[in-house]
């Protein structure tokens, strides 16, 4: 895998960067701290390929502050093809991420992405045959991690190598094998327990078979006895059915007798009603003369009532007119009283006319003085506003001139100090710092000129204008206290002019009121006369209508006699009909009584025939009880037989289950044995030990080759994986780093800092190659992040020489450093410089 291009937009501190790496082989990455060097070359590729790879940092925290959109585009060559991974992040709303993987085919980009981001990440891991951890370990030496392996104790290096090689996978596999073995062991033990339980149940099978045979014999005998009982019950049922018919006839006769009795009672009730009707008709016919006389008297009274009722609307009209006339009289009386009060008020108002005229004249004089004061106050306020505005302009101009003077003074002072520092530091004229300082000092003459010509004349002009305006304000002679006093006097006398003006039409109003009073007095006298006239007419009409209630009561009393007049002819017919119906009722009653006697005689004969009915019923109940008992015995036997058959069927199932468990047990035992072997193979002394034993010689050979290149053949590496115990016989697991030269072999810890750093890099490079080979994906790219800061100049030179000596093992080597003399050691430099708040990347 070889990087080709990196395009970063709003990623951490980087606003925008487009880095073309196609022509880069060995380069330094330079720039100020915080410019984004590590973000671009260690974090951005990992984020583009594998996503959330920074522990403790959320995806939203990767977006540059102040913006909401971020993207990273990483181009790389892999196995002869060119790919690019494009990943974006938006912090809008709940946040959104995208990932696109593309391959360049015939100059065009074709998508190789899956539907979901997680699936696309799986495609990338499958393509590279790397995950983030292996990718980082094989292509990057991060800041402060060069001696992560060599700086550990000898006893822990094997553990670290196991973690680097990913051997913790075998611990997980061993745990899974243990879990599977435990599950199989649990299943085997359960199967054994089930076999023991099944054997115990199957031991009682012969006894259950014999019990079933005995129960079936008892069932046959009981069934025959039930058939005999049912025959006896059928004969008894036939006899009882005949008797039930006779008993039903008895009940029918009893119902007919009761019905005839009810009919006779009904006829007797009807005879009573007809007798009462005959009696009432006889009474009406006996008083026929009196009824006709009362009806004639009622006709005469009705004529009198009609004549009087016709006069009642006239009385109602008179009473309404009388009430309206009375209301008009009282209304006119109230109007006269109110009009008299108004006349009195107007007369009182006219009596104070002279005093109001004097007050109105005084008010006019004071109002004229107040208008003069207000004109002076307006001029005073205008001048005060102008003076305040001029003072504000004076303050702003003064502040601006002082700030400009202070700014120029501070800048001149700083440049003068920088000018003095240039002459004393001893730097060469070609030094970049010297050149930048000289350019800044060149500004001094111009700044001094600006300070000298600073214009203060505008401030003096504003001061003069303020003084002139204040003199004009004093010349007005405006007295605020006299103004306020005059205003108070005007307010106190403001009502007098309006009251005086209102008296102008009061004389004419007084004449109109007196004329209206005279007119209303005449109308009130006319209303009084009409009221007396209407009252006399009402009294006369009430006297005429006085007999009306007595005549109405008498007419109501005679009304019932008039109604009897219409019933005289009906009474004659009613008497004839009642006599005929009474004769018919007597004949019908005699006939029904004869029928009732015949039915009573038939009932007596049937009662003699059904005397044995109760004894037959008792005998039948005993037979039925015995039959039910035997049927229950039969059901119990059938249930018992069914239960026995179910038990035998369950025992058959148990036998089948036992046969099945016996067949399954042997394969489970064999599988459990295999898992035991896997547990041992995945253990620390199994496959992981073999991998380490095979990896250590390969690591030793590669590291020795790289160290030889770095030291020009002076040193070689030897890795010891075991050492003898001092306290007792035997060997202990370890991973000692032994460094040898032409004189002797010594442990890694005895070498100097610069030599240790070369050894660190040699082993670190070897680990990177080992991881890439084990992953099946060669990473031909190495990034070293700030690996030189802790070294002095001599050791930095040794480390840089070592890095350059092994650069040919990789297609691209990138060294991130902020040290200028280290940057000068590389022919190619990728420089991060500030440009309008962002980052500009220059590949030299």
Automatic annotation (TrEMBL):
Domain Rad50/SbcC-type AAA: 5-263
GO aspect biological process, one term: double-strand break repair
Species of provenance: Paenibacillus agaridevorans
Molecular function GO terms recorded: ATP hydrolysis activity
Keywords: Coiled coil
Subunit structure as annotated in this protein's UniProt entry: Heterodimer of SbcC and SbcD.
UniProt keyword Metal-binding, yes or no: no
UniProt similarity note: Belongs to the SMC family. SbcC subfamily.
Entry annotated with the keyword Coiled coil: yes
Annotated protein name in UniProt: Nuclease SbcCD subunit C
Source taxon at top rank: Bacteria
Coiled coil: 174-201, 243-335, 387-418, 503-544
Pfam hit, one: AAA_23
InterPro entries hit by this protein: P-loop_NTPase, Rad50/SbcC_AAA
